[in-house]
Amino acid sequence: MATKTENTYDGSQIQVLEGLEPVRKRPGMYIGSTGYDGVHHLIKEIADNSIDEAIAGFATKVDITILDDGGITIADNGRGIPVDKHPKTGLSTLETVLTVLHAGGKFGGGGYKVSSGLHGVGSSVVNALSTHMIAEVVQKGQLYRIEFAQGGVKVPFKKVGKTDRIDGTTITFYPDPTIFKETVTFDYKWVVDYIRHQAYLTKGIYLAVYDQRTDQRAAFYFEGGIQSYVKHLNIGKDVITDSVFYVERQVEESMVEIAVQYNDTFVEMVKPFANNVLTPDGGTHLVGFRAALTRVINDYARKNSLLKEKEDNLTGDDIREGLTAIILVKLPDPQFEGQTKNKLGNPEVRRYVEQVMNEYFSYYLEENPEVAKKIVGKALLAARARKAARAARDNVLRKGALDGMGLPGKLFDCSSKKAEDSEIYIVEGNSAAGSAKEGRDSKTQAILPLRGKVLNTERARLDKMFANKEIVAMIQAFGVGFGDELNIDALRYHKIVIMTDADVDGSHIATLLLTFLFRYMKEVVEGGYVYLAKPPLFSINRGQKKQYVYDEGALDVALDEIIQGKKDRGVAVDENEDRAKQAGVTISRFKGLGEMDADQLWETTMNPENRVLIKVNVEDAERADAIFTKLMGDDVSLRKTFIQSEAKNAKLEELDI
Q1: Hey, what CATH topology would domain 21-220 get?
Q2: Catalytic: 503?
Q3: Which of 45, 321, 470, 501 is catalytic?
Q4: pLDDT-based confidence at 11, cuts 50/70/90?
Q5: CATH of domain 403-535+614-649
Q6: Rounded to an integer, what distance in angstroms lies between the CA atom of residue 198 and that of residue 277?
Q7: Active site residue 501
Q8: Contact indicator for 238, 263 with CB cutoff of 8 Å
Q9: Is 3.30.110.170 the CATH classification of the domain at 226-385?
């Protein structure tokens, strides 16, 4: 039993963090992370304020400049942050906004009818997490300025005087490396992607970025707004119709904007936004859209006898196959779940979206009967495929239940039952699988052999997938289920390692497998459970010693080191001989995994002490979707262009795991 000791516990021991101290103390609470994502989130917090000016109708232009000294400047031509004395703080409103948490024009005070900001912490948080921030406001030909250091005032607010600059706000800041220890370097490509998306979502706004470090520039302006966005998402896909359904209507104090176009793929791509903020977990606007879409199409199909009287209604999944849509709602008081704003919670928004979709999508189908028939026809095909897939899946499950608790017969499982300690190697070819089985650590490493090139799931319906033995074997082995029924907590292995030959065919097989995982088990990829094994290309043999290298560049480096070592020891080297002879070695090239015996495969590719694994990440699902469409879709010209343009940049980030 612990002995009670005298210990004073009073108010002096309670720490009170004032001003912006809480932000510097716990930055992750405000921006999510202090890594790459956190640094770039700072840009978003400032730029979103400029976008809000455009949404409100007061700005038409936002310019972002990545400075060559490590900072970034974001400027707009809006009204400018107010500079008068704030009645509550007694400071200028500009200083108040940049130094006081939860101070802003987004709390119903009339500053903004709608905005992406909710908590009013954005600008002040950026200030707190920067070594230096400069804020300049131009109003009616007068320039006002204030400077900060780590959130504190460095140069007090002052009226600089007359200027020829147009009205607006300009913010320059430098991320604090003591906070962002991983990086404080801004990624030009991230900024380009960000402003492109915002230009799509705010039609009629001009957004530009200039990188002083590399002299790169980009600018975007889309008069069509989300209609242009939908067309962008469907690049490389065969669309059912060139027309895009589009509606923009005000309901009470909110605005509902929707764009819809169907393509011939089997994948749904719906992006819901609230006040220009992507809500990846959906919310009431997405629920309302889906309900109305399903109702309108079923009603049209019944009314026009496209559905037989005894046929069941089309399901939402049937109707959304091949759907590309953007849902954008703008409302005065958005209720997001958490600071990350992943889900919209306003109950009234479901009614708003349903009302608009019910009325205007019904008009669209009535006025475009050929388009309507194509949409219904595609959904009917999806319904038939769904029934066939269900029958095939049930058949697979029935067979699986009688065979090793649902595990595929060709799986060489590991003995460990702890998923966090277990890994599964997906291996092409019987020869390589045999070596892998013999050389593995059977306690933690499972082997699943695959025969040849698996099905291209980019162009296959579910019924074909369930008829494919290789696909079914993976579904059974992983244990997480499939599609909407996927349960990531049931994953049997926390490393899924794709191990293919280091050649074009091996890369193709790996791409086919990644396509399947990305399209139908995305949670497994997003969870960081998928890896690519990197087998060596060469073996350098010096007597009884062997050195394995993984590409031609590494081979050159290794030979240089050996030759230089001989020179340093005073050994004569004949410069006229080829480099292998100069080094006194023989070089063997592996044509494939099947050429390696069990010991070689373990030593080079499977031993955690030596192997090189490449972790597969999905940083941007939209970009990944476009790449898979290019690589695995029907349009050969897109694939050819992509390969030609990217071949010189091809590289793999190696992670020793």
Answers
A1: Heat Shock Protein 90 (3.30.565)
A2: yes
A3: 501
A4: very low
A5: 3.40.50.670
A6: 9
A7: yes
A8: yes
A9: no
